[in-house]
Design a protein that fits this description.
- The protein is of the alpha+beta class.
- Helix content is 42%, strand content 19%.
- Strands 1-2-3 form a 3-stranded antiparallel β-sheet.
- The protein starts with a strand and ends with a strand.
- 24% of the residues are buried.
- The mean pLDDT is 95.
């Protein structure tokens, strides 16, 4: 199981709704994601290992969702990728 592993709402360069997929597979990726987001709620010791993240999945999703809400999807995906976190803008048809 991976946490977080979801699509999060953000915006594009024109302010339209966009989505970014984020998937954290390792503890190192978690450290990178939490460093980028910078929310102190993510720096609790129990979250630095998968069992703790699994137990706090809903809280983590809320923090990531809140952080993403006003960010540009392409910029977030590029930033996270540069830090080794799997992420990509979800394309529409």
């Amino acid at each position: 199981m991976l946490v977080p592993n979801a699509c999060y709402r953000c915006v594009d360069e024109d302010g339209r709704e966009r989505w970014v997929s984020i998937c954290v597979a390792t503890d190192d990726e978690w450290r990178s994601l939490s460093d980028v987001i910078g929310d102190r709620a993510l720096f609790r010791s129990e979250l630095f290992e998968l069992p703790g993240r699994m137990a706090a999945r809903d809280e983590i999703d809320m923090v990531v969702s809140s952080w993403m809400a006003d960010k540009r999807g392409d910029q977030v995906a590029a930033l996270l990728q540069s830090r080794g976190v799997a992420s990509a803008v979800v394309l529409d048809v």
